[in-house]
Amino acid sequence: MELGMFTSGYQYYPLERAFADARRFGYDYIELWGGRPHAFAPDLARGELSGVLALIERHEMPVRVYTPEHNAYPYNYMLGSELQRADALDYLKLCLNMGKALGADHTLISTGHGGYTASRRELRSRLVRCLRELADHAESIGHTILLEALTPYETNVCTTAGELSETLEKVDSPALMGMCDVVPPWVIREPITNYLDQLGGRMAHLHLVDGDGNSDSHLIPGDGCIPLPELLEELEVRGYRGRATIELVTSYRNEPSLYAKQALQRVRALLPH
Asked: Where in the numbering of this chain does the Xylose isomerase-like TIM barrel domain appear (predicted)?
């Protein structure tokens, strides 16, 4: 299984440090966080793309997934007026363009919070409408979207494998695939392997971390309570052949290099041999 580094934890350092560490520690690829100061899509489009492409070449470290910052201020396609919805989609279409330009296989998005006044029917209708528009754009440029379910602490729109599977079916586009972050199912006591059951061949990516079962915290593998050795063995038995990004986020910004190295060593030790 190819293992990737998520660069969000390096946001207080120059982006080159993440690329250099990824190569030095033995990661297979980068999942590039699309926020300032590193790879915010509008900045890339205004001329900073060439700098990131130079890092990819210099460190021989591909960007396989581009994960733009969204779902909060100021972009959330699930909340706000029609003008705000359209603005969020224009931003995400630009993100898809930049993901393609980076050479990434996928651009990864999720669902923001839909607010407390919309009905479930209204939320589902808005979600499918937005994703169909984004998928049409992805198809037109030859790119693929990964849709991620989040925890109930983050969204009230898509939090389970079943909801994710239903959304993919309703949008019905080859440019829209699903993925699993292991924390959301662990928090709501849903079997993680339910994503394999529900998505089947549409599960194209994995976020591999640990969790405490009581929050959306993403912990270094071994620091939480998810039975990761058994999970990785089950993924192997069930035939999952996709990539896995070790998604360390803001909790580890003080020492991203040390934690990135430790996390990779721990996961490699857990992989079935």
From this structure: 19-268
Q: Which of 148, 169, 234, 236 is an active site residue? A: 148
Mention every residue, 6+ apart, whose C-beta is less than 8 A from residue 172: none
57 is catalytic: no
**Integer Cα distance of 249 and 148 in angstroms:** 16
Distances in whole angstroms, Cα of residue 114 to Cα of each of 87, 93, 125, 132:
16, 20, 11, 17
Cα separation, 133 vs 141, in Å, equals 13
Strand partners, 30: 5, 63
Selected catalytic residue, list 31, 48, 154, 247: 247
Q: CA–CA distance from 159 to each of 26, 106, 110 (Å)?
A: 32, 21, 10
Tokens 């009905």 locate to 119
CATH code for the domain defined by 3-270: 3.20.20.150
Dihedrals φ, ψ of 242, to 5°?
-85, -175
Location of structure tokens 């919070």: 113
Instruction: Give the pLDDT band (50/70/90) at residue 72.
Output: confident
Domain boundaries, the chain: 3-270
- pLDDT value at residue 14: 97
